[in-house]
Amino acid sequence: MQQDLEKQEDRNQIQEAELQELRDQTEIMRQAVEKKSYIVMFVQPHTGFEWQDTISTVVQGGENDTASIIDVNSAPLIGTMRLHKGEVASVEIVLSNAGSSIANLYSYRFSVVPELGTDETQLKTMPQIRLETFLEPNYKPVFIPVSFEVTEDFAPKGKIYFEVLHDAGINKVVLDYVYVA
């Protein structure tokens, strides 16, 4: 009976902490509406991307089974992000402020979510890393270098989630990857 009460008390404390976190996020979103800052985020990989040129042509048919090419477009497309076992992968988070107010950047983190081919997945979440910097509107962007070691836990493929917490909310970018042993 005493153990049941202690377990219930522990559950209540966990639920109270979760509720407080939701309250904090709601307050951040409320302040973001008032603040009028708009954060644009993208992630630039420096490791594992293969670039391929794709060429499309438009052919116009002519008389006597002849043809002439009237348009050629060539554009590089991102192929697959290939992460090799044992390498140190690196990406750069790029943040800019397209709003009219100064934005306060609090922290960032990233998580690796392998797709293991079963119902179970292992989530590798890195701890929040504090930024504590300001981002002026329509000014130069902030570049955040991120690197991590690729381990067997990444196999066979998955996604990497990047999150930045700021006073206008949370921005997220997801990258797909394939693990190479």
Which class of secondary structure composition applies to the elements? alpha+beta
Distance between the termini: 52 Å
Number of strands: 10
Distinct helical segment count: 1
- Low-pLDDT runs of 5+ residues are 75-79
Helix content percent band:
10-25%
Tell me the major beta sheet.
7 strands, mixed
Element string (H = helix, E = strand):
HEEEEEEEEEE
- What is the overall shape? flat
The radius of gyration is 23 Å
Task: Report the mean per-residue pLDDT as an integer.
Answer: 78
| β-strand amount | over 45%
Task: Give a verbal description of the structure.
The chain is α+β, with helices and mostly antiparallel strands and 181 residues long. The protein is built from 1 helix and 10 strands. It has one helix at 2-35, and strands at 39-45, 49-61, 67-84, 88-97, 103-115, 124-125, 129-135, 142-149, 157-166, 169-180. The strands form 2 sheets. Strands 2, 3, 5, 6, 7, 9 and 10 form a 7-stranded mixed sheet that branches. A 3-stranded antiparallel sheet has the order 1-4-8, with no helix packed on it. Strand 5 (103-115) and strand 6 (124-125) form a beta hairpin. It is flat.
